[in-house]
Amino acid sequence: MAKLIINNEQKDVTIAPEIYGHFSEHLGRCIYEGLYVGDHSDIPNVNGMRTDVVEALKEMKLPVLRWPGGCFADEYHWMDGIGPKESRKKMINTHWGGVVEDNSFGTHEFFELCRQLGCKTYINLNLGSGTVREMSEWIEYMTFNGVSPMAELRKKNGHEEPWTVDYAGVGNENWGCGGNMRPQHYADEYRRYQTYVRNYAGSQPIAKICCGANINDYEWTKVVLDTCFDHTRPKEHGHMDGLSLHYYTLPEVEDDWEKKGSATVFTEDIFYQTLRRGYFMDELINRHGAIMDEYDPDKKIGLIVDEWGIWSDVEPGTNPGFLYQQNTMRDALVAGITLNIFNKHADRVKMACIAQLINVLQSVILTDGEKMIKTPTYYIFHMYRHHQGASLLKSDMAGNSTVGSGVNEMPKLIESVSEDQEGIITITVTNNSLEAAEDVEVKLAKDGAFYQVCEARIVTGKMDAHNTFENPDVVTEEDFTDYRKTESGISFKLPACSIICIRLKK
Ligand code: AHR
Questions:
Q1: Which member of 57, 279, 297, 299 has the lowest number of beta carbons within 10 Å of its beta carbon?
Q2: What pTM was computed for the model?
Q3: What does each C-alpha distance from 489 to 176, 425, 454 come to in angstroms?
């Protein structure tokens, strides 16, 4: 029996809705086919955006979308993707499968998609192979409401009003595909480029994201912050609003990208190893966060985990450059664990984007022609949506045991708890064990006796259970009933290999 102790008397930190963000790159079938089918398609669409997909993502409450990459961003020249579609330049997508990119999805289409989704916009700018002028003109094109060459061009292309760019990433993985830069060099470039990410009069200020580390490259974090922080003008916050972090969970061989392991066929040992590697996110946030604390003790700069998730081998027979992989209960658990970790670090983690939205890596949706399925990961994001914008409540799982062995040992249960503006408490817990259910007794610091369960949902199944186009509902979100009222709150029995969401109301 574990005891979940919740302090519902203290509500200092808000969980940024953007922690539940997503990433869409011109890669494989994420944009084309997944999101955008063009307005002449037989697949039902609104202005080219798939209706089934847009509806599913709205139900999931997608808060922010990052685009156009990834590695693609540092090779993207935005002017190729505006104006009449028939005259847009065609190019080879050198990073991803060497296929022809016809630029039919560009700036106007991205903002139309975000309008339909009702989400915030995160544009990743090109620092690696673009110029300061090209980048600053894109900002002008998107956000300037007045007379200027770029604003006129936007109007000529059919959009009178400027759009809102909520976040701008100044380069992507500039330690790798974004230019193979050393941290000092990137940081100097960042300082220069970000100067020209202008906030035009009347437009909403753009939050600037500086390229952060790959996994545990703490040296990168240190050098970049040291170079960006101008100690003579401390109010500048290092010229940034966010610092990114990328971490992918590779199931099998960690340092061999050819042997990542199958998405659906794996042993119990590999299952626990994958979960343990996902749980490493907690250490990454603690350690990068500690360096950030030295420069930004008031936590004004967000740690932006804008690429995370399981990266396995592609599905047999698919283009290796398209990164198409299936999604099982193992993915659901890694998503549940990671989102609980982000919630608990809500004072520092201000946005995160799972990679990637559709048909690429750990997706929430897979498509095949006109067919669409929701993955186990989809249901986790859907179940956890109540945490968005809620106040984090301090929680502790007393009497928790462990799963996995040796270097793969980790907590059996991982939870997070929040309270929304109506006073509803949302508890999400993962049971990472493949064998053992767990009884959990919830103890609230205040008014426990007055709370009732108003909603309880579960995602559970065998470790490799997954949805296919033939059997789309093998793993779904279901009602959970195995709970009872106690004097100080409630208690429940969490089955093995499951994730639950229990909501309590007075
Ligand atoms: O998400 C796939 C790729 O992974 C992205 O393009 C890149 O940023 C990262 O290496």
A1: 297
A2: 0.97
A3: 50, 11, 13
Distance CA 2, CA 148 (A): 63
Whole-number Å distance between alpha carbons of 400 and 398: 5
Q: CA-CA distance, 365 to 380, in Å (whole number)?
A: 12
Contact 307, 21 (CB under 8 A): no
Mean pLDDT on 411-428:
98
What is the whole-number distance in angstroms between the Cα of residue 330 and the centre of ligand 1? 21
Average pLDDT, the chain: 96
Token readout for 28 is 């494989």
Helices first, then strands: H and E counts in the chain: 9, 26
Residue 268 annotated in active site = no
Percent of the chain with pLDDT over 70: 99
The owner of tokens 């498509």 is 367
Query: Is 70 touching ligand 1 by the criterion CB < 6 Å?
Result: yes
Helix (H) or strand (E) holding 441: strand 438-444
What band does 259 get if pLDDT is binned at 50, 70 and 90?
confident
pLDDT in tens, 463-497: 999 999 999 999 999 999 999 998 888 999 999 99
Parallel, antiparallel or unpaired: strands 100-101 and 49-50: unpaired
CB distance 263 to 312 below 8 Å: yes
Q: Which residue out of 217, 307, 314, 324 has the highest number of ligand 1 atoms within 8 Å of its CB and is therefore the one to mutate?
A: 307
Q: What average pLDDT does this structure show over 351-373?
A: 98
Q: What SS3 class is residue 272?
A: helix
Gap between the terminal Cα atoms of the chain: 25
CB 458 within 8 A of CB 413: no
Beta strands in 241-362 (DSSP E): 242-249, 302-310, 349-355
- The answer to whether 84 and 103 are in contact (CB under 8 A) is no
- Contact yes or no for 193/170 (Cβ under 8 A): yes
Atom of ligand 1 nearest to the CA of 178: 8
Quick one: which of 190, 166, 167 has its CA closest to 178? 190
Taking the CA atoms of the chain, what radius of gyration do you get in angstroms? Answer: 23
DSSP-derived secondary structure for 62-86: --EEEES-SGGGGG--GGGGSS-GG
DSSP 277-303: HHHHHHHHHHHHHHHHHHH-TT--SEE
Each residue of 299-326: pLDDT tens digit?
Answer: 999 999 999 999 999 999 999 999 999 9
Which residue puts its alpha carbon closest to atom 2 of ligand 1?
A: 70
